[in-house]
Specification:
The complex is a heterodimer of chains A (276) and B (256).
Chain A (H helix, E strand, L loop, with lengths): L10 H16 L5 E2 L13 H10 L5 E6 L6 H14 L2 E2 L8 E5 L12 E5 L13 H9 L4 H14 L10 E3 L3 E3 L17 E6 L4 E5 L5 E3 L26 E5 L6 E5 L2 H11 L1
Parallel strand pairs in A: 2-3, 2-4, 4-5, 5-8
Antiparallel strand pairs in A: 1-9, 6-7, 6-10, 8-9, 11-12
Chain B lengths: L4 E10 L2 E11 L4 E5 L6 H8 L7 E8 L3 E4 L5 H9 L2 E4 L3 H4 L6 H11 L5 H14 L16 H13 L5 E5 L7 H18 L2 E5 L3 H7 L2 E6 L2 E7 H6 L4 H8 L5
Parallel strand pairs in B: 3-8, 3-9, 6-7, 7-8
Antiparallel strand pairs in B: 1-2, 1-4, 4-5, 9-10
Helix pairs in contact in B: 4-5, 4-6, 5-6
Classes of the chains: A alpha/beta (276), B alpha/beta (256).
Chain lengths: 276, 256
């Protein structure tokens, strides 16, 4: 396609985003403001992730797009096609073959490698948002490492539900400094944030980019007597039999029939192939 | 004995108008000082300058920190001042809603200061919250209720518990009994007097209610138009007022 510049955004915009990404990588967990552009999709559909992906893509890259673990749902299909048209890059559904992975709310089950980049779509980058409405104040709290409030939320969870009920967007502390919202991934995925790949987070509407360099120490917040516990449905995948992957619950009929299958479609399909 | 708080020539201007000016005093450990005066006399401005909520234009506020002795809190860095604000200092607002998180349970409200100084054991935090709710006469079964479900007097008591849980050495109070009916006021004053005596707290109480300072304060400072017009022992000032304004103030109290 010659009508578009490579990967849709103009070169100056991509430079601006790359500068924000580099700053984010230099200060892991810090939310870097950037001049988010209008994208040809609505806010909430991944405009932040798409801009970050556009800034890191090269013509040699192979792109994979995940939507809630799956490669074949609307969001994944449309973003993948967007970059096929505007960048002409190769695309794949295989986690192992991708060099850039844009994801909405899941981390692949397959461990990522050092030569891979994973880009998260982030709706609300500020972990303190629902506790402290003022952006001026939350920035000050980050600057001064004033994070007592974050534990108040976990305290409220335990006092109301008897356990930390936060199941997704579970707050983490990065390298003992910044408290970060890992985007709404299930807390099952939190331990995987300690990984070999570069992790970039883009929030389009909120105009923030943040990042985790490879092997960054990421700790999920908890209490001494209520330690962090990653949770998943207590079942095995109905298709591939995996007992260690994150599962989706599928309602199959009106009579209470249900099945649990891997949320990561590529992981599941690969296991089924290997077993066959 | 070294003072806990030393204020020297403090002044705060709002443009050309005076908020407060030429305020100097020493506060010693265990001492309770009252600041009285009419609306607009600069009492709250002074209190907010002392507590670090407002930046004074002139003067020094030196606080005896545990580690380094007297430090000027005006020139101190913001993180240090905030640290003081959640450990050695406490601030009781006139309206409990300003000092409480209304959408967080009573236990969470009391626990917040503990968690802000790195308490990370849920059981301990909860036990301390229950202990403090008991001390301010809130029963244990209300611990998971939100302050919105509390009466005005209970909210004020909750605010006091939330502030005193970290064992502060200096408490700033801005009209702590304002807006409460008289019987609730009396109980709150009883409670405050007990806590101040038991914990050996120092306190600065801003109020326009002379009965409050008569009960709680050792010393009194009378303000008018941003200036201190009279200081002295509470009973001395109230029983034998020297300045014309103080005489007016004392004689304005209705005798029932």
């Amino acid at each position: 396609m010659t009508e578009y510049n490579f990967a849709y955004l103009d070169e100056q915009t991509k430079r601006m985003i790359r500068r924000a990404i580099l700053k984010g990588l230099a200060i892991p967990g810090y939310q870097v403001p950037f001049a988010s552009r209008e994208m040809p999709m609505p806010y909430g559909w991944g405009t932040g992730g798409v801009q970050v992906s556009a800034a890191v893509l090269t013509p040699d890259d192979t792109l994979k797009v995940i939507d809630q673990g799956a490669d074949d749902t609307t969001n994944a299909v449309s973003i993948r096609r967007f970059f096929q048209r505007t960048a002409g890059v190769a695309v794949t559904e295989k986690t192992t073959q991708a060099s850039v992975i844009q994801t909405r709310h899941r981390i692949p089950e397959q461990a990522l490698r050092e030569d891979q980049i994973i880009v998260y779509q982030v709706p609300i980058p500020e972990p303190l948002r629902f506790l402290e409405p003022s952006e001026v104040e939350t920035r000050k709290m980050h600057a001064l490492e004033d994070y007592g409030l974050m534990h108040v939320k976990l305290y409220e969870d335990i006092s109301q539900h008897g356990a930390i009920a936060t199941a997704y967007a579970y707050p983490v502390k990065v390298e003992g400094r910044y408290v970060m919202d890992p985007s709404p991934i299930p807390k099952f995925d939190n331990p995987k944030l300690d990984m070999a790949a570069i992790q970039l987070f883009g929030a389009g509407r909120e105009q923030r980019i943040y990042a985790l360099p490879p092997y960054t120490k990421v700790v999920s917040l908890d209490f001494d007597d209520y330690p962090f516990q990653p949770t998943k449905a207590e079942h095995a995948c109905a298709l591939c039999g995996s007992t260690t992957s994150y599962l989706d619950e599928l309602i199959t009929d009106d009579a209470g029939g249900r099945m649990f299958i891997c949320s990561d479609t590529d992981y599941c399909a690969t296991r089924v192939e290997e077993a066959a | 004995m070294t003072p806990l708080l030393q204020v020297e020539n403090l002044a705060k201007y709002y443009g050309a108008r005076i908020g407060c000016a030429d305020v100097s005093f020493d506060l010693y450990p265990g001492e309770v000082m009252g600041i009285v005066g009419e609306s607009g006399s600069g009492k709250s401005t002074l209190l907010n300058c002392l507590a670090g909520h407002l930046k004074p234009d002139h003067g020094a506020v030196r606080f005896a920190t545990r580690a380094e002795g007297l430090r000027d809190t005006v020139t101190m860095s913001e993180p240090e001042r905030r640290m003081l604000g959640r450990t050695d200092w406490a601030f009781v607002h006139q309206h409990a809603r300003d000092g409480l998180r209304m959408n967080v349970s009573a236990g969470g409200n009391v626990g917040e200061r503990l968690m802000a100084v790195n308490a990370r054991h849920y059981g301990d935090i909860r036990a301390q919250a229950i202990d403090w709710l008991g001390r301010v006469e809130i029963t244990e079964d209300r611990i998971d209720d939100r302050p919105t479900a509390f009466s005005g007097g209970m909210q004020q008591r909750l605010q006091i518990a939330r502030n005193l849980v970290t064992g502060p050495r200096l408490v700033f109070m801005d009209e702590p009994t304002g807006g409460l009916d008289v019987s609730v006021q009396a109980r709150l004053l009883d409670l405050l007097r007990g806590l101040v005596r038991d914990m050996g707290l120092s306190a600065i109480i801003v109020t326009h209610d002379l009965a409050v300072v008569r009960l709680l304060a050792d010393r009194l400072m009378v303000m008018k138009d941003g200036h201190v017009v009279e200081t002295g022992l509470t009973d001395q000032v109230l029983d034998d007022p020297q300045h014309g304004y103080t005489q007016l103030l004392v004689s304005s109290v209705l005798q029932v």
